[in-house]
Design goal:
The protein is an all-alpha fold and 470 residues long. The chain has 26 helices and no strands. Helix 24 runs antiparallel to helix 25.
């Protein structure tokens, strides 16, 4: 399920953050000559960090111990000049979040996140508590969003800029303190999160159907039930694809082990999504079709619902983003895996299940794929000086200025060269094509042309010198 396309993306993201942090964590710095929106986003970012520091200092255990304030993340953030300035302004004239600080502190103190943090002895996991607090408590807080919405210069795009800065801050923090080992832990975690997204999406039809069954049952018992309430169309709830998903033991084991249950934790999200589905043209056409559907047609219904309704539902997509900082980048690739899995269920039925097998994709195709990401990251990091020499030599005398190259482009080239020179089984054409696609997705408009030109020039020289035999 986690293929090399996704692994390459993760390695590029991680190496970029790792090299930027350069083993010393710092928060984001303000832009020179920012626009009004950029200025708002940065001020909100700093004020939110300051809010987190105040919340941390407000939660005490018996004896005066402040466990959240003693985390490395809060200690590091507190030393930032920008955050210290925000804290001092808050002390003198009040923070923008003064009105909600007490209730937010109570929410954190009473949360399962904090209680788990206090009990957890794994320092690596304990340091992640602030990302969880930010994404699961602060961001969804009605009070927080109300205050932000009233701030001068507020725009939705500016708010999203702040979220992106927070994401980079957490990633930089994780990859700064422990060098390569910590970075690899982060890589494994982000890949596991991609797996969690896949299982979560694959189990969604079961949750939606369960909720629809409950609604129909409640309608039957209404005091003034209509004939339609008493004899509802059961085609949706009797969908054969959903039955196959329910009976797939591998899927259900993954749902349990990865904590991917929709009910009851996210019943509100599921209910809103179900309403959108029931009101959709896809649902109406399926329910009114006079022909009896088979498994293939039932699977196609869910493929169409995902493509035309679920993947376009902004409320649902935002709820996923709040659960993991990684899922926004993973969604397109994982969505393709999901659609392929549903198609396999529809085409093959229970044949494989009867043999003790499953249509659920394994996390990795084989051991080689499982090790690919860590090997690629190590090779790119370890041989970076050599790859930089190759890049400098390539751009010398060209239209590209080595001193003004986009850093993301350079990181993409590091990873591409690491793959080309250290993984002989991967065809050169495949490697070049994959990293050109990454450049199109992550960097500047001209990046794909730059990455392609440099990789072609460098590999030509390496082949001429006998250092490359692909």
């Amino acid at each position: 399920m986690i293929n090399r396309v996704l692994i390459r993306l993760k390695v590029v993201q991680l190496l970029y953050s790792h090299l930027l942090s350069d083993s010393s964590f710092q928060i984001e710095t303000p832009l020179e000559n920012p626009t009004r929106e950029q200025r708002f986003a940065y001020q909100l970012y700093v004020d939110t960090l300051a809010l987190m520091v105040r919340v941390a200092r407000s939660i005490k255990k018996r004896g005066g111990e402040m466990p959240l304030a003693e985390t490395q993340f809060i200690e590091n953030v507190s030393t930032s000049d920008s955050v210290r300035g925000a804290l001092e302004r808050g002390r003198m004239s009040g923070s923008p979040f003064s009105s909600i600080e007490s209730s937010l502190t109570d929410s954190v103190r009473e949360s399962a996140i904090y209680k788990r943090f206090v009990k957890d002895e794994n320092e690596g996991e304990r340091q992640r508590v602030w990302e969880e607090i930010f994404t699961s408590i602060i961001l969804p807080s009605e009070g927080y969003n109300a205050v932000v919405g009233r701030m001068e210069g507020y725009t939705l795009h500016g708010f999203e800029r702040m979220r992106a800065m927070m994401t980079r801050t957490f990633t930089n923090f994780y990859t700064s303190g422990g060098g390569t080992r910590t970075a690899l832990v982060e890589l494994r975690r982000s890949l596991l999160d991609a797996r969690r997204l896949y299982i979560r999406l694959l189990s969604l039809p079961v949750a939606l159907t369960w909720l629809r069954e409950r609604q129909l049952d409640e309608n039957r018992h209404k005091y003034l039930a209509t004939p339609e309430d008493l004899n509802p169309n059961l085609r949706f709830v009797e969908n054969r694809l959903v039955s196959a998903l329910r009976e797939d033991t591998v899927l259900q084991e993954n749902v349990s082990s990865l904590g991917c249950n929709w009910i009851p934790q996210d019943e509100g999200i599921v209910a809103r999504l179900l309403k959108a589905i029931v009101n959709s043209e896809v649902y109406r056409a399926y329910m009114e079709n006079p022909s009896a559907p088979g498994l293939k047609e039932d699977a196609e219904l869910w493929r169409d619902l995902f493509k035309q309704v679920i993947f376009r539902n902004e409320d649902f997509l935002e709820s996923l983003e709040e659960k993991s900082v990684f899922w926004n980048d993973d969604f397109e690739i994982v969505g393709e895996f999901l659609l392929k899995t549903l198609k396999r269920f529809g085409e093959n039925g229970k044949k494989r299940g009867e043999e003790g097998m499953t249509h659920v994709m394994p996390m990795y195709k084989d051991k080689e794929d499982e090790l690919f990401g860590e090997d690629l990251f190590r090779k790119a990091l370890m041989n970076r000086p050599y790859y930089q020499e190759l890049i400098n030599e390539s751009v010398k005398g060209s239209n590209w200025d080595a001193q003004r190259l986009a850093f993301m482009d350079v990181v993409i080239l590091y990873c591409a060269l690491a793959e080309i020179l250290n993984f002989p089984k991967i065809p050169l054409k495949v490697s070049i094509g994959e990293y050109v696609e990454i450049a199109k997705f992550y960097s500047t408009p001209r990046s794909k042309d730059f990455v392609y030109a440099q990789l072609m020039a460098i590999t030509d020289r390496l082949r001429e010198s006998g250092k490359l035999h692909k």
